[in-house]
Every structure is written in structure tokens, then in C-alpha cells.
Write a structure and sequence with these properties.
Blueprint lengths: L2 H18 L11 E7 L14 E12 L2 E7 L3 H31 L16
Antiparallel strand pairs: 1-2, 2-3
Bound molecules: zinc ion.
The site of zinc ion has 5 residues, from loops.
């Protein structure tokens, strides 16, 4: 195996591992979690002195400059939203890593999924 094909093989393996570790694409969401405590405004309510009513959890997403969407999350949806946000980050990180691997493969002029010019390999 030449040095070039050894490098290519290693990069292709890295890329395969990155692809295999990805969470389901359908289970992603962009945004951030925000926790709020609300004051109801009643003069006699305990929230006047304490931290307020809550916590209430929101998914906050910036859609464009100055425009955000906020979704009040139920207790059941909070861990779902956390998971989706985490998945989104993992996809984003993987995109950058695979992109870096592919830049190196392009430099090595390896286009296909497998190394073509390697004897004794099937597929
Ligand atoms: Zn209150």
C-alpha cells in the first residue's frame, strides 16, 4: 500500500465512523433552552418576593435578525427538546469533521467510497 492510499484508507475509515455515530436526522432542532420564572402581578402572591412562578422552560429559536420563536415546553417535552438540541450540535460537529476529512480526500484525489486502485479488495 502506498503512503497515499494508506492515508486515504485512514480518512475513509474516519469518515465512516463519523457517519455511523450520527443521531437520527429527523430528531434535531436548532435553538436554545431558556428557563423563566414569572411574576403574576397579584399584590398578595408569594411570587412578589420569591423567584416567581415556574420554572417554565422554553425553546427559543432565532429565525432571522430580530425575530425569534419561543415554544413553551411541557415537562414531557423538555427532555425531548434537550435530546434534539444535542443531536443538532452533533450533526453540526459531524458536518464540519466530515467536511475536513473530505477536503483531505480531495487533495489526495480520492473521490469514491472505496480506494479503487487497491489490489485484493472487493467492492
Ligand atoms: Zn404570583
Amino acid at each position: 500500500m502506498t503512503k497515499r492510499s494508506a492515508q486515504a484508507k485512514k480518512l475513509l475509515e474516519q469518515r465512516q465512523i463519523l457517519a455511523a455515530e450520527l443521531p437520527p436526522f429527523a430528531e434535531i432542532v436548532r435553538g436554545s433552552l431558556v428557563t423563566r420564572y414569572r411574576r403574576c402581578g397579584k399584590a398578595t402572591c408569594h411570587c412578589r418576593r420569591g423567584p416567581g412562578h415556574g420554572p417554565a422552560h422554553y425553546l427559543v429559536v432565532t429565525l432571522k435578525a430580530g425575530k425569534t420563536e419561543q415554544i413553551l415546553l411541557s415537562e414531557e417535552m423538555l427532555p425531548v427538546a434537550r435530546q434534539f438540541l444535542n443531536n443538532y450540535k452533533r450533526w453540526w460537529t459531524a458536518l464540519e469533521k466530515v467536511s475536513a476529512v473530505n477536503r483531505r480526500l480531495l487533495r489526495l484525489r480520492v473521490a469514491s467510497r472505496k480506494i479503487d486502485a487497491e489490489p485484493g479488495r472487493r467492492g
